[in-house]
Amino acid sequence: MSDNCDLENRTIEAIRHYREALAVVENLEREEGSAHRALTRTLLELGRAMREEDALSLKDNLFEIGSAAVSRSDEASAALSEAAARLDSARLTVAALERQLGYIPEVSVAARDST
């Protein structure tokens, strides 16, 4: 019985870890989407500026902004990729523990918030 209790506690902890990883992925997905939209807007503005003959200072400014937008988008994508790998690892852990235990114990949302 003690082994079963220990396994259940480990499963509950794994579920909490999974929920935390999922929340991180969801936040990073929003951040990546925002970075992508900013990059798209910047590229459109840069395209318009390139077509205008006398907007040299605007072009320089947009190139800097565009570079920052690309960097932000790349960073968001890399962070999302890492977080997705952690989420997948947490999912596999929960699945392995569930197979050992034979069921998934109930974990309330309130229990997650108290950790």
Can you characterise this structure?
- By secondary structure, this protein is mainly alpha-helical.
- The chain has helices spanning 2-51, 56-101, 109-113.
- The radius of gyration is 23 Å and the shape is rod-shaped.
- The two termini are 25 Å apart.
- Mean pLDDT is 85; it is low at 111-115.
Number of helices: 3
Task: Report Rg.
Answer: 23 Å
Supply the helix-strand structural class: mainly alpha
Outline the biggest β-sheet. none
The SSE order reads: HHH
Poorly predicted spans: 111-115
Strand runs, count = 0
Helical content class: over 70%
Mean pLDDT: 85
Instruction: Characterize the overall form.
Output: rod-shaped
Relative strand content: under 5%
N- to C-terminal separation? Answer: 25 Å
Topology:
Blueprint lengths: L1 H50 L4 H46 L7 H5 L2
Helix pairs in contact: 1-2
